[in-house]
Amino acid sequence: PVLRLLEAQLQDQRREHEEEVEAMRNQLDLMQEELENQQQLFLQTLQLSPEVQVELGLQQEITRLTNENLDLKELLEKLEKNERKLKKQLKIYMQKVQEFEASQTVVPVERRPRERNMQVAVQRKEKDFQGMLEYYKEDEPLLIRNLIT
User: Fold this and answer.
1) Helices (H), the chain
2) Residue 4 region, left (φ>0) first, then alpha (ψ -120 to 50), else beta?
3) 3-state secondary structure of 145
């Protein structure tokens, strides 16, 4: 059984390797065709007058820069859209933090007398419970930061 499994794996690897080699050969053929086309264009431009060569070079550069500008504009639009989305999220989180902070100032005042009464009845470690989350007072800045982000 182990030998058959290894043979099957070897055949799979061989098949994958052959597929990769075939894909690379196709890619190489395409690159060779492209190179030949570029060489022909280069030879044709060498036969042209210097003025026409300069003009063609300028046209190619203008086309390249135009395409680059379009790509950059598209990227800028995506980034601006993402920025607007993040600003909206930040506003929402800031409101939640303010609501959370407001609830934190109300809850301890209501619970403190009850907690003191409970301390008298049952001795236990003193914890300051606020809201529905249990956390240590020193972890509060980290908790707020995580809520915001």
Assistant:
1) 2-47, 50-121, 140-148
2) alpha
3) helix
Confirm if 107 and 130 have CB atoms less than 8 A apart: yes
Instruction: Give helix 50-121 / helix 140-148 axis angle, nearest 10°.
Output: 140
10-residue block means of pLDDT along the chain (149 residues)?
Answer: 91 96 97 94 82 87 95 96 95 92 67 48 52 75 84
Which whole-number Å values give the CA distances from 23 to 31, 33, 35, 36, 76, in the listed order? 12, 15, 18, 20, 36
Task: Report the distance separating Cα 91 and Cα 99, nearest Å.
Answer: 12
pTM (2 d.p.):
0.38
> In whole angstroms, what is the distance from residue 53 CA to residue 42 CA?
10
Residue partners of 56: CB distance under 8 A and separation at least 6: 45, 48
